[in-house]
Amino acid sequence: MTARRTHRWPRPLDNAARRIWYGGDYNPEQWPESVWDEDIELMNQAGVNIVSLGIFAWSAIEPEEGVYDFGWLDRIIDKLYHAGIAVDLASATASPPLWLTQKHPEVLWKDERGDACWPGARQHWRPTSPIFREYALRLCRAMAQHYRDNPAVVAWHVSNEYGCHNRFDYSDDALRAFQRWCKERYGDIEAVNDAWGTYFWSQRMTDFSQIIPPRYIGEGNFMNPGKLLDFKRFCSDALKEFFKAERDALAEITPNIPLTTNFMVSAPGNALDYDDWGDEVDFVSNDHYFTPGRRHFDELAYSSSLVDGISRKQPWFLMEHSTSAVNWRSINYRKEPGQLERDAMAHLAMGADAICFFQWRQSQAGAEKFHSGMVPHAGRNSQVYRDVCALGNDLDTLSQAGLPGTTLSQARIAVVYDYASEWATEHTATPTQQVRHWTEPLDWFTALADQGLTADVVPLAGDWDRYEMVVLPSVYLLGENDARRVRDYVAAGGKLFATYYTGISDERDHVWLGGYPGAIRDVVGVRSEEFAPMGDDDGVLDHLDLSNGTVAHDIADVITSTADSARILATYQADSWTGMNGVPAITVNTYGEGRAAYVGCRLGADGLAASLPAMFEAMDVSVPAWQGSGDILRVVREGRGDGEHEAPRFTFQFNRTHHPVAADIEGRTIVASLAEDHGDGTATIAPNGVIVSMG
């Protein structure tokens, strides 16, 4: 297993005091130089202290092969530095210039049918191309040599959003790389056959040369699930190896500059195994864009908590989010008043020490011209820019109060997320296509928040077994080692919440035999013989009512037996023809010194929230009165005391509703956005509001 790199954070310019980094992507090459001075004036007014430069500037930096033009980049970096603004400098390799792809079309990635992804958008390169690697690393070395002693450059931004468009490549380069990956992973071909179950449908192989990527196999057919799961692992690794090559080329010349690349962690964002990638960066960075509607805030908080888990509670960098609307959805909703600051503060509360947007100035042309910016099309005389300035002022206040370097306090409960489980549940031959892993962790995060509990979202490989309570929400793949961790955790007194679709298969996607959930059946004390999917076809089961008043949709376990040590909290109430009437739906089992609740159906966030009080009572979980309201999401960041001074403690309280809510102030208020401190230890927080106190 790869050792995690030592955490290194970008240093402030000229040895200044550490502050919250604030800024965004800056693309001066899109604008005449006459605009640059105005940009810097507006940045200073807004409190911007860092920008990311050069992300898509390869064609401007190397307009012809081997001919570099650093002049324009030197001039803007010099202007920024003298204005006190640091630079997060990109390797500029995210999208190759047209001269490169014209000369070497073999660097273009191919889809499953063998069609090339032609230039015209971005990220049209394949990570397994030796030719593209040669050109990209040459640019990395030229960038590093030129800027190795530039005091403005405080971090390297390696490429951009790996796998956003080129996650899957089915070219011959990828074929050869996939064969090598399989040989390194399994050693001999029989081990691959065993992992992929190739005796099924006569897919047995006798040589690694017979391994091909999961190319097109005809409409309505089903790819080998073990092979497809491994191909997704390979694609994450192939992009990671390309990142490491770029990282190492830069680090060899500029060893004192920390390096990162921007992940795309969100509830449904699972292109790469970002927890695995977290080992390879000097500090974790993330891009996050809001989900419109009801889940806007909860999904944002959930995703940021997962980034904090990937970063192992080290400070992380929010590299991109939006001031308002994005440009890439079918309907691009704007943010409501207050959400610009509220969203930024939520990322900050969950462990970010840098708040940046895409982008500084909204583009006048190009595919992203309707993506919001810190300076919108309307210019400085706009509500968005005024909100950007207000946020900058509040971040400065928090910096002076000592927030940078504090960490997100460990919650009482961990919600576990697993990238491989998500990939496995994406297969097209499953009990129901309506169920994926990623939705259940988010539902639990929301349901716990409705009960006044803020959860930590922790990767499966993380330290979830250090928590008082743990949720395994549809963690479909549980290998022997992880199943043992679950047993040891509960036996030692831990309190586990597990759900349907958990522990179904091992890490190879081989089903655990003997009844579901096979990997931890003894821990939860139930045995299910079948799945009972639900749908909207005529005359089929479309829902199940539970005896506790909640309703299940999409899937339920047909639990046929429970352990003597298990207590049934809810059953299904259904017509006899369904075969589900009286079947256990929610149980709690005693295992060793601990207890394990099992939720055998998909209840959604509302159903889970309604079911949690009974589970808490059966598991002897106390919920303090101050945590009893789900109107407020409460998050705490803490520092470390030095023996003479008390450790700083910052409490963030967010209104999760569309009506004003009352809050108790913990210490003194230092930031209030759409919130009023009444001066008597209480406050009112308006919709989309947040209040931050210290003490």
CATH class annotation of the largest domain: Alpha Beta
CATH homologous superfamily of the largest domain, by name?
Glycosidases
Q: Kindly state the number of beta strands.
A: 26
Number of domains: 3
Mean pLDDT: 97
Q: Estimate percent helicity.
A: 25-40%
Count of runs of 4 or more consecutive helical residues: 17
Largest sheet: 11 strands, mixed
* Basic shape: globular
**CATH fold name of the largest domain:** TIM Barrel
Q: State the end-to-end CA separation.
A: 41 Å
Low-pLDDT stretches are: none
The oligomeric state is single chain
β-strand amount: 15-25%
CATH architecture of the largest domain: Alpha-Beta Barrel
Kindly name the structural category.
alpha/beta
EC number: 3.2.1.23
GO molecular function: beta-galactosidase activity
GO cellular component, one term: beta-galactosidase complex
Catalytic activity: Hydrolysis of terminal non-reducing beta-D-galactose residues in beta-D-galactosides
